[in-house]
Amino acid sequence: MAGFNTGVLTRKMFEYIDPRVITPARGARLGRTLFQIDDKPKTWDDTYKYYWKERMGQASDVVDRATDLTTVDVTYHEELGFITQKGSALEYSDEEIERAQQGDLDILGDKTQAVNDALADWEDRLIFNGNDDSQKPIYGLTSDPAKAGFQVADDAPVTFDKIVDPSNTDPYNDANKLINWFIDAGNKIKFLPGKSNAQLVLALPQREYSLLTRPYNKYSTSDTILSMVQDTKHNGANAVFSKIVPVPELSAEFWNTQKGAAGKKDCGMIFINDQDTADIKVAMNPARFGRVEYTDGKTKIKYMERTGGLCIKFPAGFVRLNGIN
């Protein structure tokens, strides 16, 4: 039987493996579809700095020969963020490759996709859930609002489940309560100076997002919470949000550490997703690092990613939504 052989990985195999890991699969890395990337941090930076400016001063009355006009001032505040890293590796044996070729199985493709998925999952968890490092904190959307600086809306007046419950005798009224609550929560951002025209994004856990599209009127399948909040009947002319997206990491299972019923509570988030509000700091996109290891007929290839997660520059541009389930 011909042996696959070798202790050396051929160039052709590298050309096949590397792009599968470095280029995320379509639909992966949800965070990168919501926030812009800043790749200015250098590969091995452990921290990064950014600045925000505070403008002070006001106009004063002008009279003839006045010498006491008020002056303005601009103060630049320096902030420090942290960069962390994660690695993943794929390993296969000569025998695995030969058996896979015999059975027309794409074992390299499957394993490289698994590496990609592992790094993509970690990146999204960091963006949406932050880390638990008290010394080098990286905040995400589900981080403690008091620590991250987020605004918080009062609990929803009605849950998504109740609105679409077939036994609900007045779902339209309940849906309107929820819509008005969304508007009030969004206004916490829009009423800030200079933010009246802000384009707001609504992020919800997967389950609550699915309830948005479920009809609450048994006589009309087009009557949904989504159709109301986005005014689909008028082609979005009075839509509350620029877009609404499902984010699995907002589900309680990913972040809520409380006990009992409280530990099952999901959260949502309304935010501005421009680069003045937040962006993703990337020091190293997924890349192969270290030497390829070949021992006893097994090959191991390692990959690493380094990122600062979500850099939240304007915390007031985020509003946490509680009590949605």
In short:
The chain is of the alpha/beta class and 325 residues long.
What does this structure look like?
The radius of gyration is 25 Å and the shape is globular. The strands form three sheets. Strands 1, 4, 9, 10 and 11 form a five-stranded mixed β-sheet that branches. A five-stranded mixed β-sheet has the order 5-12-8-6-7. Strands 2-3 form a two-stranded antiparallel sheet. It folds into two domains: 11-51 and 77-141 and 279-310, Major capsid protein gp5 fold, CATH 3.30.2400; 145-276 and 315-321, hypothetical protein PF0899 domain (hypothetical protein PF0899 fold, 2-Layer Sandwich). Helix 1 (11-22) packs parallel to helix 4 (107-129). The model is unreliable at 1-8 (pLDDT under 50). It has helices at residues 11-22, 31-34, 94-102, 107-129, 145-148, 160-164, 171-190, 206-212, 225-229, 252-255; strands at residues 37-38, 47-56, 73-82, 84-93, 151-152, 200-204, 243-246, 268-272, 278-288, 293-295, 298-312, 318-321. With 325 residues, it is an alpha/beta fold.
